[in-house]
Amino acid sequence: MNHEIREELFPLSKCLDFDNVEDVKTALVNTMIRVVGVDPQIASPREWYVTLAYLMRGHLSERGMHTARDQYGKDLKRVYYLSMEYLPGRRLMKHLLDMRIEPQMRAALACFKQDLDEICEQEKDPALGNGGLGRLAACFLDSMATQGYPGYGYGIRYEFGMFSQTIENGQQVEHAENWLQEGNPWEVVRHEITYPVRFGGRVVHFNDELGTESARWIETTDVIAEAYDIMETGYGDGIAVTLRLWSARSTQDFDLRYFNEGNYIDAVKEKTVSETLSKVLYPMDTTLMGQELRLKQEYFFVSASLQDIFRRFRKTHPGSLRLLPEKIVIQLNDTHPALAIPEMMRLLLDEHKLSWDEAWCITRNTFAYTNHTLLPEALETWPISMMQALLPRHMEIIYKINHLFLQEVRRTFPGDGDKLKRMSLIDDERQRVRMANLAVVGSSRVNGVAELHSRLLRERVFPEFDVFYPNKFVNVTNGVTQRRWLLQSNPPLAELICEAIGDAWITDLNRLRDLESMAEDASFSKRFMEIKDQAKKRNAAMIAQRCGVAAIPGSLFDTHIKRIHEYKRQLLNILQVVARYNRLRANPSSDLLPRTVIFAGKSAPGYFMAKKIIRLINDVAEIVNHDPITRDSLKVAFVPNYNISTAEILIPGADLSEQISTAGTEASGTGNMKFALNGALTIGTLDGANIEIREEVGEENIFIFGLTAAEVAARKAQGYNPWDYYNADPELRQVLDMVRDGFFCCEEPDRYRPLVENLLQGGDAFMLLADFRSYMETQENVDTLYRDQKLWAKKAILNVARMGKFSSDRSIHTYAQDIWDVTQMTPPPHCK
Ligand SMILES: *Cc1c(COP(=O)(O)O)cnc(C)c1O
């Protein structure tokens, strides 16, 4: 293909001049009439939103073509990011900020008496993820685009994303999230880009013309994967990164068979069965449910993505599959896409007729795997019988990978049968395939997501692998994009920072260091605190509207927002709130610092304990918020339906960031980074990235409490007894007794008995009781510091100034250098 000739034939058009208000107005009116089909005189805010989205999409598309032409022309190595989840947040304001045309667009809309913010509010959050893992994928795409790394994202276009949550009678109620109901103007459907994905059937082995053994996978049931593209473009002169999401469609001939028999209803039924594949996201974070549909989803998305990757590769490198590891790298976001490893083997062996050794060498050198959790219940395994039935050829390949791998292991560790058992891809006793072991063996690099996590991965989860593969395990600490989590979510603070030190931090977060010198500047710190106050007012308005709780004006906003999970210890926080409540009641004239304690987060629908914790928070809120003794000094709010858009309001409006997981359980956390970037101080354990945050901000600027990961392990090894703490600490005992005996739920006194029994009789797996006293004392230190607003401001400003390390730009540079071996593109010429 000769790209220069085509360039002449199809030059990319000149962009709209966004500095010319009249031109922008004309473009808006034209788009609304010609594309949306609505008369601007009567358009609703939603129709304005769709109009703006289409107008912007045109520009993104143009940037996409510049980027694609450039990449093909230069034959650059590409990164493919495979993730079952993405949480990109609303698109419209992001793209306006990236293109730096927000003021121009606002002005043009004002001429039509339209308000840009109201229009942005019309957009639904694409809820294609559970939590941190999905948000990380979105931050990474933004950083890849901004920094010019040639990347692609692949995922699933779930018709029903993460459920939306309401709180009814204090309890979580899940609702279907039909986010596509009114269409998605940001996506482009690629009807011509479809691939069959096969399931079931059986494998036949035969000798081909050359006498080599071949396998054929036959009698399969097929589903069609259809591509939907969403363009991610970076800030300023960034490039375009395509996020390609697969939607399942039934195969046509499949329907026809039934039609011919005159069985219309069954034909439609089969059609809906195959289309359920991309219907719904499993709403589980860190705990997994081994359902067949989930396995099918994983293979569906992996198979379509690899076919697409091979097609693109072969367009430019016909007949040279050996070049694959030189030209592409595939990053697996957790083990969810780990079937890509046997799938690539299958393609190379069965379709492209490579030898096993060649195929394995290519495969291993193409993949890299990111681990996201140490919790044993979250390490994915699949029943062999299920894999055998759905993916018989892959099961054969996995057995052979395992056989050859264990042979090698045996040579290195002769006579160590236990080691062999632990390293095997197959758990013989439970008859399951271990996806993490498969991902480690089939990848050239394995990374954890924070220093501590990466170390514990090597020491606790994969010690044998670490010895066997000396250079395979590396660390890449997570990060967040400052474009979303400061520039977009906190415009007043972004503006103050720009005034003080310029705008280079937007693409180079280390530049925030220049703020250090302002930490004690009286006028800067006054404006900084005024901005925090404004953000808290905005936050309070949302809280009042969403859950009817009136935050206490001027109080400390203490914020604990993330998925609800026992290891994240929302229960420890609410126990502390109860203790605070008791202190206030025991001593009404005490001047305990007023606090508004804010929670938000979803529980997996079947997670009994997490749902109880949500209810307890709401029941405690009900009592505390209405008690005349305490209501002016303590308020508790549970904000329903935590998602990116609510995070964008809750985080700038927080004083204190709760990051209190049991040490050794949170892989990294990214919420912790977002808060500190917005000037909240952290109260946290030495877990995940908290450790590195402390290193950066200095230990005098963070509140650390509780056991370390090593102490947790030692305490468990000694035989941890939660009763010791219950018996020794009267305040803790009073709190637990109240919760257990129904103080917060007199209509059903036993409601929280299981929660407390889980702590006392149940062994307190996450060691809340061991950390309770230290947490209480540290919360007192928080109160003391907050009374000194000047000192608090100084520490908050220093937190912002020292967040440079936690940009996802830094994470992406590290991946690019240490794992991907890809280089930055110089941005192609854009029209703006
Ligand atoms: C950042 C983020 C998360 C991750 O939060 P953690 O505190 O790191 O668990 C989850 N959900 C949303 C919506 C987020 O923005």
From TrEMBL:
What biological-process terms (Gene Ontology) are attached?
glycogen catabolic process
Family matches, as CDD domains: GT35_Glycogen_Phosphorylase
An example Gene Ontology cellular component term from the record? cytoplasm
Source species, domain of life:
Bacteria
| Residues carrying N6-(pyridoxal phosphate)lysine | 674
Please provide the record's keywords in A-Z order. Carbohydrate metabolism, Glycogen metabolism, Glycosyltransferase, Phosphoprotein, Pyridoxal phosphate, Transferase
Question: InterPro entries from the entry?
Answer: Glycg_phsphrylas, Glyco_trans_35, Pyridoxal_P_attach_site
A GO MF annotation of the entry reads:
pyridoxal phosphate binding
E.C. code: 2.4.1.1
Question: What family is this?
Answer: Belongs to the glycogen phosphorylase family.
Q: What does this protein do?
A: Phosphorylase is an important allosteric enzyme in carbohydrate metabolism. Enzymes from different sources differ in their regulatory mechanisms and in their natural substrates. However, all known phosphorylases share catalytic and structural properties.
Identify this protein by name.
Alpha-1,4 glucan phosphorylase
